[in-house]
Amino acid sequence: MAAILLAATLCAAVPVFSDEEIADESDADPITLGAGAIFLIGFAVGAIAGGAAVHVIEDLLEKQNDEFNEALRAGEANRLYSVIETLEASYANSLANYSQIWSLTSEHWIREAELSASVLWAPNTAYNPSNIMAMSGVYSNSAMMLADAVAQPNALYGAVSQNIAAWTQDAAYNDKITVSWTYGSQSMGSAASWSGKEVWAVSVPASAAEGQEVYIGSDGYIMCFDSNGSAVGPDGLVSLPSGTEKKVAEGVYTLSAGATYVSDRMLPVISATSAQVRPGVIMTAGGSSAIAIYDSDSGRISVGGVSYDSLGISFKAEGSSASTVDVTEVLKQRQGLLSSVISTMNQADSSAWAVWQIYNDAGSASAYITTLAVPNEYEGVEMSAAQKRIMAVMALQELAGYWAGNSGALLKDYTVTPGSNQLFIRGDIYNDRNEVIAKDAIFTPYYRTQDDSIALGSNTETQAATVAVWATGYTGSLSSWNHVTDHPYLITSKAGYVMDAAEIEYAGESVSSVDLDVRSIDYIEPGKITIVPNPAPDADKDYTALITIAFIAMAILLAFAGVLNGRPGLVVIAVVLAIAGAVGAGTINGWLVNGFSLGGLF
Asked: Which of 115, 111, 286 is nearest to 195 (CA)?
């Protein structure tokens, strides 16, 4: 468009001559300029005026483009700020909800711990909380919950990092929007690279007399952040060069002193030598890294050993002020979830300890002794392990009296419908000494902590289970069984028991095998977050100023040509052009951008 208008301007610089004037040039009055001279003068004046107009136009367009790009950058920075602010607020709220919901799972984990205690107990064996927490799934499920808690925000930070990388490919954004981590008056930022990673962190002081313990969940990693370190776990010694993530086997790890360790699924353990796990964020910008750790005691953020009031993410576009999202609340709510998880672990541990002591007193274990006969805790009033032990014994006394007074009424025929129980197995059960304990039986196993499967033939058990025996001495097929049982009883099986299955019925169908999946906390892949960077679109096509300048320039040149050539008609045309440029430039711009329309004239 600029080229077309410029061409029109230069053409207007050429004076107009009649044929008669050209023909009579040789006889012209001495004071009359020749056609060539007039042409050269007109061309020179036109070129000068046209050049001046082009210069003015270029300055105008350059200024307009700079202002437009500045507005683009400010909009992009504000857009990212709004995305992060909204998602961080939503995530903090979700974490608060997770904390409440997790606390309601405590009775499930208590019962799992009690059942594991009944399996692990043996005469003259010391109570080991970590063994019980591991067998019961308390550790593994708790660690997975913490992994889920950091997965989604890390996906968000990854999307922001990709967005910044995309900026570097566009001149309108490259090196002109700075994203920073801010803490107190300090900041760590870059216009080219930025990232964040939420972790669970442990700082083991160099003065620690011995290593401190943590639990790393399934498929987890461990990294030593600020120096070289090491950890001893299920597979022995793991060397940890600074800044290197290492995938490790699930289990308890003893961390060497004098370093900070991080993981996405790291728990404290039930032990006097447990490390203190805290929420943290690894901050990276422009090639520099630091870790911010939340202190639950003070509610402050520690970076490099210095305490700050808050942690934020700042967005600043060139020429605009910064906008900062405070992410301290997310760290606080992560601490709330961690505290809820730890509280549940402690409750499970105290209940397992209570039944263990009952086993010690009685000289034998039973999977049916539980501390859940009475409420575990009121709001803010938790029962101690000793109280649980006493209450469980008193509950047993009550149950014994109840059975003594009502056993006759309770012992009667029951009908077990397929709708109430989907799995039935016909066969024999052997204990770990190869002794038959249920012959020609119809039974259903209930596994506790690990997934398992049953197939036709011999199945050697690898974990404990509660087995409901519905009938014995039955030699018919399951399809012929009337589901009536007059003497059902329970068997507590353990590793080494054998279930010899002659027939399996699942959901009313005869099958050759069945998989039994125990409920557990699974790792949830974070939802994909894509923040598409705003490209630098073409500026709005507004040529109004350019059209006005071009029309006025043409008017001046035509008027000049009219005066030089004694042609007043050109002067009149020049006046019309000047008025048209001043009044009608907007209409003409509309025609150029949107197409010609008579409606634009009115």
From this structure: 286
Token pair listed for 487: 């003497």
Angle, CA of 313, 315 and 321, to the nearest 5°: 125
Non-local CB neighbours of 46 within 8 Å, separated by 6+ positions: 9, 10, 12, 13, 14, 557
Do β-strands 498-506 and 423-430 pair in parallel, antiparallel, or remain unpaired?
antiparallel
Measured from the Cβ of residue 222, the count of other Cβ atoms closer than 10 Å reads 25
3-class SS string, 470-537: EECCCCCCHHHCCCEECCCEEEEECCCCEEEEEEEEECCEEECEEEECCCCCCCCCCCCCCCCCCCCC
Q: What is the length of the chain?
A: 602
Sequence-separated (6 or more) residues with CB below 8 Å from residue 175: 168, 191, 192
For residue 593, give Cα distances in angstroms to 1, 102, 172, 178, 584: 10, 61, 24, 36, 14
CA distance 201 to 181: 18
Per-residue tokens: 21 = 């004037």
Report pLDDT digits (tens) over 64-98: 566 777 888 888 888 889 889 998 999 999 999 99
C-beta neighbour count of 211 within 10 angstroms: 17
* CA 245 to chain CA mean position, Å: 19
Buried b (16+ CB within 10 A) or exposed e, 449-470: bbebebebeebebebbbbbbbb
Distance CA 351, CA 39 (A): 108
Residue the block writes with tokens 């109570």: 127
* Closest among 105, 97, 180 to 137, alpha carbons compared: 105
pLDDT in tens, 568-590: 877 778 788 778 777 777 777 77
Q: Is the pTM of this model over 0.90?
A: no
Quote the radius of gyration of the chain (alpha carbons, Å).
Answer: 42
Low-confidence ranges of the chain (pLDDT < 50): 1-33, 35-40, 43-47, 49-55, 57-58, 61, 536-539, 600-602
